[in-house]
Design goal:
With about 450 residues, this protein is α+β, with helices and mostly antiparallel strands. It contains 17 helices and twelve strands. Strands 1, 2, 3, 4 and 6 form a five-stranded antiparallel sheet that branches. Strands 5-9-8 form a three-stranded mixed sheet, covered by helices on one side. Strand 3 and strand 4 form a beta hairpin. Helix 1 runs antiparallel to helix 2, helix 2 packs antiparallel against helix 3 and helix 3 packs across helix 4. The longest helix has 28 residues.
Length: about 450
Amino acid sequence: MKEQNSIPTSKVERATKFVQTGAKIGGNYIKHYAKKAFNPDLTRDQLNEDNSKDVYDTLSQLKGSALKVAQMLSQDKNMLPQAYVDKFTMAQYSAPPLSYPLVVKTFQKYFGKSPESLFDTFERNAANAASIGQVHKATKDGKTYAVKIQYPGVAESVSSDLKLVKPFALRLMNMKEKDLDIYMDEVESKLIEETDYELELRRSNEISKQCAHITGLVFPNYYPEYSSKRILTMDWLEGFHMKEFLAKNPSQEIRNQIGQLLWDFYDFQMHQLRTVHADPHPGNFLMRMDGTLGVIDFGCVKEIPEEFYNEYFKLLNKELFDDKTVLLETFERLNFFDAEDTPLQREIFFDLFCEMTRLLGLPFHGETFDFSDDSYFTRIYEFGEHIGQVKEIKDARQARGSRHGIYINRTYFGLYNLLNQLGATVRTKSYGEVPIEA
């Protein structure tokens, strides 16, 4: 992959990139409608392909929070056309890497020396490159390290980048600006945390120690002496990302074993730690043919408030749906309704939320669940499409749900998708269950 020699860091440079991309997209639409004039049956597939390429090319040059948001969107297959999902998925671990001189510049800034002076060997080509940083392989005194280097200017541009993304989000989510701001504030706070590698180092050590009892999970050690606010050094773990792992045709037993590790890892964090690794995309896990699983990134961590926890996880109890009064009160406390809703809207939203929570909670309703069942995911996607067509939802542009649900929902969607890709059947008996009367 071609290396990138510079990153636009000023607000003007980054805004200019967005404007240029907007112009390209406008040109793509002109070409599309010109072709459609001669071929009325022409679909939007090529238009989506062209637009997704132009958007991704720009975001991959900018790196940082704009590319991270694209990565987040790629995990929800209901949110974007497939062409965008395919392109934005690349942001998980295969974005264009920075050139080596920029890597050296970062080391000089934080350590006063080059990577070769700090380590015995340091591979100039990045092993992986994602939205916020890239990873290089290094050795010292016989040990092999993974050194994560943050892209220049990423931390400083989070707020301004999200302001540039905001108009797109308003159109995409059909939401009032004041309501969207609630969610944007949550996303911004998490993205700022992700750029603080000192915070990540502390959280990585804490959570990996707390989860060390789960046999089969493998966590790297972290090295403060080779780390800083923008550089993070850990053990190099061997293993394969999802696509590479599946290409090796692992047995169903191994798929199930790794799937169970993923489930237990997240379930323990949710119900015991109330602090969770909230970025479950394939780039953050290394799968091994012996059925063990490496966890390599704790940049995005969500702390779950007690009050939200009690209400949210109550919805996973299928017996709750037998008591409409308690269910309605739970929806109220989770901000599923708005003061401006009409009685008809409340009734429609109540029915939709019931169906949604039943569907998403289905894996919790038995002892085991087969995530290889594509029909289950088809139902989720079809339900998402159905919601998008409901007139009352289109007309009601209020925010729905607690801001804390953004990353918890994202975590479960990401986990479900990982397990689906693995084709795993797992035991879903939970570490904790919130009683209905709580």
